[in-house]
Structure to design on (399 residues):
């Protein structure tokens, strides 16, 4: 018996996905969402659900602009990949080779900082302090002030051995390294605009929040109680910090679901979109593999203990979260293929690419959730998204 198979999107399953988001919004779990899904390069869903700002009754629209928080790191990583392709950086480049003031000041100390490399930063194994705010909020939008503060601190462990997700330090350093190897003539935001956003036609994306987009910006509103390391105030203060001039390579971009989908599709296609290549396939091939083995992400331990979960493996590539094998809580879902990769922002934003199914998902939400609830939410929506892909199998008549 022979079988020929093609895949398509089941419209009824797609309706169940959007119905679930509507249910969550009506239940008050979060305020709204804009989703965008592509299958085999075709956009099969682009829908706004619920509220951009529930407190004022402002409804969500597909062209809403979101503060995408740590999803910003994916854009910073792209500039790192490009610098490697240009011969300006390597995954083994030490931070001190580009930012000499980062070097340990005391010659009698174990000079752990001096050993930190691009790989250590991009896989969150730098052993730098995990605080989200290297400087006070009034100066957090200044990359110069942030780098100065980081350079004055020491590592708290040996780089390369443990995974401690870094909300700020690692990608602030990566952003500054990229800026310096390009000659210091452009700001980090200008580099992103020139080398990522413009080539991809991402006209609704910027580093910092342009004042001209104020009426389309979705405000950050926390929908959770304090969980020990993050409070509602920590999230909502970013509405002020992330202004038009903010240079924050770790958390400072704004974008739309349509633009993030263009970015995701570029990655799915091996670094190229519409005839424009941003990333060499060889770099993406290596970056989308698991580089942390069975190590756990120490950042998740308190959350897992609070929820009585087994601590999940870190499953980090060179800048991506990887689905990997095994059954465990995952923001990338439990049904996505092991090679699925993506990035997310605290309690609110997600994109992933499932190469095996030629499927890309973007979900940007309003109403920031507590992180474990966010993982459960996106795990559920990811599994429902994968479930929209079905096989049409044609068998010969059986007699």
């Amino acid at each position: 018996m022979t079988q020929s198979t093609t895949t398509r999107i089941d419209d009824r399953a797609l309706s169940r996905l959007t119905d679930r988001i509507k249910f969550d919004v009506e239940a008050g779990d979060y305020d709204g969402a804009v989703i965008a899904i592509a299958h085999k390069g075709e956009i099969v869903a682009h829908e706004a659900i619920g509220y951009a700002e529930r407190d004022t009754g402002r409804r969500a629209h597909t062209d809403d602009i979101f503060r995408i928080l740590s999803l910003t790191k994916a854009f910073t990583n792209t500039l790192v990949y490009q610098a490697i392709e240009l011969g300006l950086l390597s995954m083994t480049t030490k931070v001190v080779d580009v930012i000499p003031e980062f070097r340990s000041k005391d010659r009698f100390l174990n000079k752990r900082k001096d050993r930190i490399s691009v790989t250590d930063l991009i896989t969150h194994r730098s052993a730098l302090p995990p605080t989200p705010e290297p400087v006070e909020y009034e100066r957090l939008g200044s990359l110069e002030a942030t780098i100065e503060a980081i350079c004055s601190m020491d590592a708290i462990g040996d780089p390369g051995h443990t995974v401690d997700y870094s909300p700020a330090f690692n990608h602030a350093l990566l952003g500054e390294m990229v800026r310096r190897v390009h000659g210091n003539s452009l700001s980090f935001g200008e580099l992103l605009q020139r080398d990522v956003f413009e080539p991809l036609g991402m006209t609704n994306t910027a580093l910092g929040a342009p004042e001209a987009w104020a009426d389309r910006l979705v405000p950050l509103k926390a929908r959770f109680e304090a969980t020990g390391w993050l409070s509602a105030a920590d999230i909502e203060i970013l509405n002020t910090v992330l202004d038009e001039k903010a240079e924050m390579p770790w958390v400072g971009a704004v974008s739309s679901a349509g633009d993030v989908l263009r970015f995701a599709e570029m990655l799915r296609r091996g670094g190229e979109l519409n005839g424009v290549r941003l990333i060499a396939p060889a770099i993406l091939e290596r970056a989308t593999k698991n580089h942390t083995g069975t190590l756990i992400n120490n950042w998740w331990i308190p959350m897992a203990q609070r929820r009585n979960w087994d601590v999940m493996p870190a499953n980090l590539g060179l800048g991506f979260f990887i689905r990997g094998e095994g059954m465990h809580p995952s923001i990338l879902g439990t049904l996505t293929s092991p090679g699925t990769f993506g990035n997310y922002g605290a309690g609110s934003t997600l994109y992933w690419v499932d190469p095996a199914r030629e499927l890309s998902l973007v979900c940007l939400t309003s109403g920031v959730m507590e992180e474990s609830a966010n993982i459960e939410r996106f795990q559920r929506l990811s599994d429902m998204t994968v479930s929209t892909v079905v096989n049409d199998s044609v068998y010969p008549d059986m007699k």
Observations:
- The first strand starts at residue 4 and ends at 9.
- The longest helix spans residues 11-26.
- The two ends are 12 Å apart (CA to CA).
- Residues 394-399 have pLDDT under 50 and may be disordered.
